[in-house]
Specification:
Helices cover 35% and strands 28% of the residues. By secondary structure, it is of the alpha+beta class. A hairpin with a 2-residue loop joins strand 15 and strand 16 (277-281). Bound molecules: flavin-adenine dinucleotide (FAD). Belongs to the DadA oxidoreductase family.
Length: 372
């Protein structure tokens, strides 16, 4: 049947494409349907930072699968994927203490650095860091490149893509769209922050809302490496792996005292390098239906703090945007099977790039879902 395949994937973000990639590896016929004419969702709006090490202990199996999938996809499709790790400058003794605790907890996954070592590694030798760490397993990709390149490569391998086509209903192997009906043995729905438009009851049941994040692209000085991945103290208080360390409550109190404005906008201050510059962000605000406006005060705050760490006196801002991802206060992953042929998968936290290929394995091969 012309409109039939082994697998239909709804959504051409990284989660849909990772699922299509693995299904193609398994020899299945795959059809990807997206309402846009190219990937433009969360998957191109982010840092391109695969933060494997900072994830919770309980998801480290998914993390391992994801890292392996990223490497295979990069090799096959030819997109840039740097195994350059993450650098974390510690600006206070408490930040360093959390890194020490994490290093002991995750033996072999963390290299502790002295202040000069971490300052040199992020390209700002004058930074008065008290110490820091390198997390060598973490990876960097260019979020503006990955999804379009992977989609184009999959299309060349025979995966069918139907763009500009909104899916309006899914059930029992049938997919109703604005361009007619399609059928498949299995349907995987990865609509990102579009979940409520397709499965409103599911979104409500998991308290799914949209998180908006203030982001900027600035010029990168030569001395800052293109594959930079830099987390900061706010990241140590945020990612589940670090946040489980005993000194994190004290670090949170210190941050509230030292950086109240960053805490107020729920910042995860970080920066990554891409060929086009440095990605700098971010803040977090939550709403079922966010307004489109970007707060210039928050944008300036994030820019000021990130460029201070990197020693950039006069940042040249090339772009600003309000990124969006799907969020839930209850879970980091919505993975539901409304009927035997349908799977709905949405990462409801800012870790979907990191976990994408590992979650795609869970989607296609079943298996135990760890406590997200
Ligand atoms: C600013 C920012 C920073 C981030 N930083 C990081 C980070 O450092 N590390 C990390 O791991 N993650 C990060 N994330 C999170 C990560 O980007 C997301 O978790 C991930 O990209 C989600 O991928 P997705 O494929 O589920 O969604 P998306 O990329 O949004 O793709 C969903 C697709 O589904 C399509 N779609 C939706 N509804 C329909 C429909 N009814 N019919 C047809 N098509 C439909 C959309 O058009 C879209 O193309 C960040 C996100 C943002 C916004």
């Amino acid at each position: 049947m012309e409109n039939s395949s082994d697998l239909i994937v709804v959504g051409s973000g990284i989660l849909g494409l990772a699922t299509a990639f693995l299904a193609h590896e398994q020899g299945r016929t795959v059809h990807v349907i997206d309402s846009s004419d190219r990937p433009v969702g969360s998957s191109i709006q982010n840092f391109g930072h695969a933060c494997f090490t900072g994830q919770a202990d309980i998801v480290q199996g998914v993390v391992r699968d994801s890292r392996a999938g990223w490497l295979r996809a990069a090799q096959a499709a030819g997109f840039w994927a740097a195994e350059s790790g993450t650098h974390v400058p510690a600006m206070t003794e408490l930040e360093l203490q959390v890194l020490r605790e994490f290093s002991e907890h995750r033996e072999g996954e963390v290299t502790l650095l002295d202040g000069r070592g971490v300052a040199g590694a992020i390209g700002n030798p004058d930074l008065p860091a008290v110490g820091g760490a390198h997390l060598p397993r973490d990876m960097r990709v260019d979020p503006r490149e990955v999804a379009p390149v992977l989609a184009a490569w999959l299309a060349r391998q025979g995966v069918r893509f139907t763009w500009n086509t909104r899916v309006t209903d899914v059930g029992d192997g049938k997919v109703a769209t604005t361009r007619g009906e399609f059928a498949a043995g299995q349907v995987v729905v990865c609509p990102g922050y579009g979940l409520a438009g397709l499965f409103p009851e599911l979104a409500e049941r998991h308290g799914v809302r949209v998180c908006t994040l203030v982001m900027a692209l600035i010029d990168r000085p030569e001395r800052v490496r293109r594959d930079l991945g830099m987390l900061t103290g706010t990241s140590l208080a945020r990612y589940d792996g670090f946040a489980a360390m005993p000194s994190v409550p004290a670090l949170r109190a210190e941050l509230a005292e030292r950086e109240p404005e960053l805490v107020d906008c729920v910042a995860n201050l970080m920066a990554t390098g891409i060929p086009g510059g440095l990605l700098v962000g971010d803040s977090h605000a939550y709403s079922a239906t966010p307004e489109p406006f970007l707060d210039e005060g928050i944008a300036e705050l994030l820019l000021d703090r990130a460029t201070a760490l990197l020693g950039i006196d006069r940042p040249v801002v090339r772009q600003r945007w309000l990124g969006r991802y799907s969020d839930s206060p209850e879970t980091n992953l919505v993975l539901e099977r409304p009927d035997t042929r349908t799977t709905v998968a949405v990462v409801t936290s800012g870790i979907g790039m990191t976990l994408s290929f590992g979650i795609a394995e869970l989607i296609l091969n079943g298996g135990e879902i760890p406590g997200f």
